[in-house]
Amino acid sequence: MYFLDILKNKYICFEGRARRKEYWMFVLFNFIIGVLIGIIGGILGTRLLSTVYSLALFLPGLGLCIRRLHDLDKDWPWIFISFIPVVGWIWIIVLMCLEGTSGSNQFGDDPKSGESATPSDTPSTEA
Questions:
Q1: CA-based Rg of the chain, rounded to a whole angstrom?
Q2: Is the pTM higher than 0.85?
Q3: First vs last Cα of the chain: how many Å apart?
Q4: What CA–CA distance (Å, rounded) separates 2 from 15?
Q5: Per-residue DSSP letters for 10-34?
């Protein structure tokens, strides 16, 4: 599960690359949990739960977004595009949807490279 893996192993990780799947699964679970915490906070009449949750997930989310940009061979300053009202957020969403650079780039190896090879996909070296 990508959400728990990021929280457990990549909590404050700004290096390397992140696949689209890793990014969007994190966004999906973050959204679902955020909605549930918002509902619980509404029932309890407090925003404290939502505030704590948002603060706890800020750095992992930022790190994941930067690693996703790395997969596109773009450096971290590209994140500042998101500060442009409306257009910036649309552009960041478009970037997050684009396929990453195939093969290695300046930020590391292709995160897809090791996952698609299964024993049936690997050519046999036997004669």
A1: 18
A2: no
A3: 39
A4: 17
A5: -TT--SS---HHHHHHHHHHHHHHH
Query: Half-sphere exposure of 119 toward its Cβ, with a 13 Å CA cutoff?
Result: 0
**Cα–Cα distance between 116 and 106 in angstroms, integer?**
22
State residue 46 phi and psi, 5-degree precision. Answer: -140, 150
The amino acid occupying position 16 is G
**Rounded-to-10 torsion of CA 47, 48, 51, 55:** -170
Where are the domains positioned within the chain? 2-97
Other CB atoms within a 10 A radius of the CB of residue 57 amount to 19
Residue 55: per-residue pLDDT: 94
Identify the three-state secondary structure at position 105. Answer: strand
> In a structure prediction context, what are the per-residue pLDDT tens digits for the chain, which is 127 residues long?
667 777 777 778 888 888 899 899 999 999 999 999 999 999 999 899 999 999 999 999 999 999 999 999 898 888 898 899 999 999 999 999 998 888 888 888 877 776 543 334 444 444 4
